[in-house]
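Much of what follows relies on a compact textual record of a protein's fold. A record is reproduced here so that you can trace the correspondence yourselves:

. . .
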Amino acid sequence: MADVAANGQANAPQLVLQKIYVKDVSFEAPNAPQIFQEVGETEQQPQVQLNLGQKSVDLGNDMYEVVLSLTLTCTLGERTAYLAEVHQAGVFGIAGFAEEDLAGILSSYCPNLLFPYARQMLSSLVLEGGFPPFLLQPINFDALYAEQQRRILSGSAAPTLNS
């Protein structure tokens, strides 16, 4: 039976986005300007690797900070062309959910909300760093969360995404 408040209404689950912000951002082009010449002269394809991370912190009073971390590394041969990193964060008010539902919200729903902001920031960093545009494809956080749960149950490590 649902909990009933003093006013007679059921305590419905609540999820409220309080704030979205950039917690940390960095861009490095350690081999510039020479790497710009190599990109145009070589037939070697740049290799791009995306590392994805997510963490949540209980701030108390049903408030949570969720931080989505995207690290994009582009290499040409053995040399790093660029390294771009974005930590996109949000503060969420979340109340009235079961513990297992809360874990799914923090690991899937919240990162889904933060992802478009992080993707835009990453794209801007790469472009403004003097490199060709990079369009990060959508990420299925529901599938990643399900895989993470499966790995926890089987005792394996978390996956790393490669693009």
The chain has one domain: 14-154.
